[in-house]
Amino acid sequence: MSSTTNNSDRDHIIRQWRDLEQSDPAIFEAILGEEDRQRRGIELIPSENYTYPEVLACNGSVFTNKYAEGYPGRRYYGGQEFTDAIERLAVKRAKKLFRCEHANVQPLSGSPMNQAVYMGVLNPGDTILAMDLSHGGHLTHGAPVSHMGKIFNFVRYKTDPVTHRINEEELRALAHEHKPQMVLCGHSSYPLDLDYSMFTRVAKEVGAVTMADVSHIGGLIAGGVLSNPFDHGFDIVTTTTHKSLKGPRGGMILCRKPFRLQINKAVFPGLQGGPHMNAIAGIAVTLGKALKPEFKQYAQDTINNASTLAAELSQRGAHLVTGGTENHLMVVNTVDSYGIDGHVAEETLDKVSITVNKQIIPDDPLPPMRPSGIRLGTPAPTSRGFGQAEMVQLAAWMDDALKGHENETTLARIRDEVEELCLRYPVPGL
Ligand SMILES: *Cc1c(COP(=O)(O)O)cnc(C)c1O
Fold first, then answer.
1. Which 3 state secondary structure label does DSSP give 157?
2. CA distance readout (Å), 151 to 154, 162, 220, 235
3. Which of 80, 130, 137, 259 could cross-link to 255 by cystine, CB 3.0-4.6 Å?
4. Whose CA is nearest to atom 5 of ligand 1?
5. pTM for the complete prediction?
């Protein structure tokens, strides 16, 4: 890649922000407001993170201007010297990081990424065996409200109420009964690692394709602290790039060679037009960083922080679904722990500048907008530099706030303490 940039002239970057401030103050102020909100509060939504300053730069770069329909070397528009270079780099890094034979880095986000796989590998009406939503599965795994839930026949497996694991015999029985074309695993609110070999064993018996959606834990797999489905013979793995991987918003489909063409055609022209090249530049940067030893440390710290937070909350009497965590997230049953539903818990923690999301628990008796729990995760606070001591403090604050949710004086005191701590740990990129 060659460049003829005049290195002394970078004033345009400052000028862009000045132009925005003058031409659209409402949006400019909202960006400053959001920056301030992120600075002052503790972000515990497990699917969120702080991306790298370099990724913010890529997102705001002139790659935003470029159409690049097709794939490197085979595009439908001219002027692809630099787009080809960044996409090739992103693909090469993805393959190395996840030890896989093929990578497609064009999906615009997690949902289109999964849609592309289903449409590329299966036929409408085919059966997919997937994890129950309330046990940790994702909307895109065939929730009745999703389009995919209308096009494919999703059959659900659950976790065992005692071991909290997926029971191989139950999975096998469902597989033999329903003869799925695909066995899908993956989750967004399940706090344990998966035994991937169990899925490949069962899928083989019924001739099904195996797919793992590791959207939440892509960074933890890349960092080597959770199992990699490809080490257990999986065919296809999907992941978002903006969660534990810390990249821009986007998705990647990783697969074994035989699925390469089906997957590429399903993404483009099957589902999408022009890829977002500014995001792909950021994905390449993200994957480059994930290949470095520091990222392994980040992944390990994220897990260590989660287990400390879970242990501290439990010690203070919180009831955690599965009793703890093996990854970056945990689900707290707030009804059992504090006598309040997840909606009230979320609002209470908002008042003390701790951001979480309400969460349904397995076979939740309460409705989704007022479910029985909340979900907490450590990718964002770990990116900010929080360690064990901060997790202990955080558990104490959350416990005090949730137990004293009607005491405005307590809440105001905690909010001041939270914000004071946050100002000592700058948000990356700000
Ligand atoms: C977040 C997530 C997705 C969807 O990603 P979006 O970018 O929000 O569309 C898909 N699957 C799982 C398991 C997820 O956690």
1. strand
2. 9, 34, 32, 22
3. 259
4. 110
5. 0.95
- Domains (range + CATH), the chain: 62-290 (3.40.640.10), 301-422 (3.90.1150.10)
Give me the amino acid identity at 356.
V
Q: Is the CB of 337 under 6 A from ligand 1?
A: no
**Number of continuous H segments (helices) and E segments (strands) in the chain:** 17, 15
Do 310 and 320 touch, CB atoms closer than 8 A?
A: yes
- What's the pLDDT tens digit per position in 302-313? 999 999 999 999
Query: How far apart are the C-alpha atoms of 349 and 97, rounded to whole Å?
Result: 36
Section 143-147 average pLDDT: 90
Structure tokens belonging to residue 37: 């909100």
| 71: β partners | 74
Which residue of the set 39, 67, 172, 296 is catalytic? 67
Q: Give residue 169's identity as a one-letter amino acid code.
A: E
Averaged pLDDT, 49-59: 97
CA of 215 to the centre of ligand 1 (A): 6
Q: Which residues pair with 331 in a beta bridge?
A: 375
pLDDT band at residue 6 under the 50/70/90 scheme = low
Q: How high does pLDDT run on average in the chain?
A: 96
Contacts of 371 (CB under 8 A, 6+ apart): 341, 342, 343, 358, 359, 360, 361, 364
2, pLDDT greater than 50:
no
Cβ-count burial 88-120 (b if 16+ within 10 Å, e if not): ebbbebbeebbebebbbbbbbbbbbbbbbbbbb
Is 36 labeled as catalytic in the residue annotation? no
Total Cβ atoms within 10 A of residue 365? 9
